[in-house]
Amino acid sequence: MLFTSLINEICPGTSVKLLHSDDLYNLSDVAFLDGSQTEYNRETLYFGYARDMVDHKLPPQCILARESSSGSAFVPEDPPSLQAFREHASSLAGTNLALVDRGELFRVFNLAKSLIDASRNQGFYGEMMDCAARSHSIEPIINLAAAKLGNSLVLLDANFKILACSTIFPIDDPLWEENIRLGYCTYEFVSAVQQIDAVKNAARNSDPVVVTCYASPLRKLSSKIFVRGSLVGIVLMLEKETPISPLHFQLLPVISAAARDAVCRYAPYLFSDNTIYEKLLYDLLIGAPPEEIAPQLTGLSFSPHLCALCIRQSRYLGQKHLKEEVAGRLLQCLPNTRFTFHENGIAALVPLGDAPQLTPDMGKALEELAEKEYLRIGVSNLFFQVENFSKRYAQAMRALELSSRLHPEAAVCLYSDYAFYDLLWAANDPDLLGLYCHPALAILSRYDHANGTDFYHTLEAYLACGCSVKDTAQKLFIHRNSLNYRLERIRQLTQADLDHSKVRFLLEMSYRIDHFTGRDA
């Protein structure tokens, strides 16, 4: 067990404060300083008082009690005062050092001993860390842990976002199937969980807690994950294949410690920084009610005009690349953008200032970002209040979904270009959309098929060019006289008044319906 891992386990509920750590050696034993040691075992964690160190020589790994400065040697209470201690210890390099209030020294000694004994006796922590070292990822150790427990395992962050789940046993609990499919737990789900007595009354440590709820048929065993006293995640075992047993209670804290250390060492991007803006946007996305959002807005300011981005990878380079590379470059091209990570992508809030939409420079910057980082970016319509972020993010996401069907080559997709198609998508029966089309399209399509003409696409080009003969002829690479002939034949065949704005609107709508349903193919 590493020193930092031990401190992370002990910190909650104690006065322990980490001053320095190098984590060069595992811990295998504990001992008290007695004033007689001239040499120290580098794998032993020493406890005691600075006055009991011979020649003020620090052990490689130690937790010292805070004392007053009246003695010949002392340890200050706060890290900024560490210089006073350095007068007696030339360097902290290669040393693991933490402080504890003297009244808690023996309690912390016992906690450390039990944790080190458990780690040494089980050996499973080392097995999981070896697995993490080989794979440099979290999924393999979650599967290894699930195999050891004989049940499915889910790793969540402090916001109940799914970081990883085991795959060796099927997870067919409907509630957790949906959570895993989404990649996060909804606000209603999180709120319900937090009202469960076992959760509300749980101690602030990694001790396993049995959780049951009416919405799920399975019991769960959970263990919290802490980093330097802050809750960063939860390991959750779903009871199905194997009933909850004392072995599960013994193993789960070891698994949560290994999961924490593996994430911190190989995938630190998985644990959210949870800045005030990131938490606000995330809560909006998972459906937090207005009364929960209002307090978070205090003291925050936003641009008068806003838009939302949905950023997804077109070539999967992993969450690490998304969080460590793409996020930084997004801020370079669109400064002051706020974002959170959601559904394997980035949900961003972009300030537009007084502009009613992305400026050409902003659009160009997004195009370049998408090309360099293999991204597809959906852009919402303009909005004015941050409380509407979730709805506008849904627009950006819909722009991506619809463009992948209609224009898969597009990298940056504006919802305004796809709003009509989104309206079509909302139809109760898409197969009936053809009934709303102007009959001229069907007449021209049948005539072209029978006679080898191209009147259907000629009319489409004419409408797209604003009914300009000059522009349409150039677009179709034909002479203006040829175009005029075709338009006259179209009028004769369809009896459509192309000079009437209402007719042109219905025709344009009909072409969009044909594109959407694939009838133009």
Helix-strand blueprint:
Elements: H1 3-10, E1 17-20, E2 29-32, E3 44-48, E4 61-65, H2 82-86, E5 96-100, H3 105-122, H4 124-135, H5 139-149, E6 152-157, E7 162-165, H6 174-182, H7 187-194, H8 197-200, E8 209-211, E9 220-227, E10 230-238, H9 246-266, H10 276-285, H11 290-293, E11 305-313, H12 318-333, E12 338-342, E13 345-353, H13 360-373, E14 375-379, H14 389-406, E15 412-414, H15 419-425, H16 439-451, H17 455-464, H18 469-476, H19 480-494, H20 501-517
Parallel strand pairs: 2-3, 3-4, 4-5, 14-15
Antiparallel strand pairs: 1-5, 6-7, 6-10, 8-9, 9-10, 11-13, 11-14, 12-13
Helix pairs in contact: 4-5, 4-9, 5-9, 12-13, 17-18, 18-19
Report on this structure.
It is built from 20 helices and 15 strands. The longest helix has 21 residues, at 246-266. A hairpin with a 2-residue loop joins strand 9 and strand 10. The model is unreliable at 69-84 and 86-90 (pLDDT under 50). By secondary structure, the protein is α/β, with parallel strands linked by helices. The chain has a five-stranded mixed sheet with strand order 1-5-4-3-2, covered by helices on one side. A five-stranded antiparallel sheet has the order 7-6-10-9-8, with helices on one face. A five-stranded mixed sheet has the order 12-13-11-14-15, sandwiched between helices. The protein starts with a helix and ends with a helix. It is 44% helix and 16% strand.
